[in-house]
Amino acid sequence: MQTCRGCSLNRLPEVKRFVMDDAPHFERLEVKFITGAPPELILLGNGDKELERIPLSNLSRQECNDLVKSKGFIRRNDKEEF
Question: Which intervals hold domain Selenoprotein F/M (predicted)?
């Protein structure tokens, strides 16, 4: 996924909480901070070919979590890491 770290993300508190607090806990989900980029989930296939780009701006934190789970991303159990 990609997003701007500040400007647009600060206007989207639900999406910001997902990006900063939830996204790091999903396996194979990488967050890239790109200045001026709107928050989007970008699905890549073989050879990093872009398959789908889904805007997150209109979603709640829960909807963002549900979306990444529906796309096959698995949330790591933090307790298992210790």
Answer: 3-73
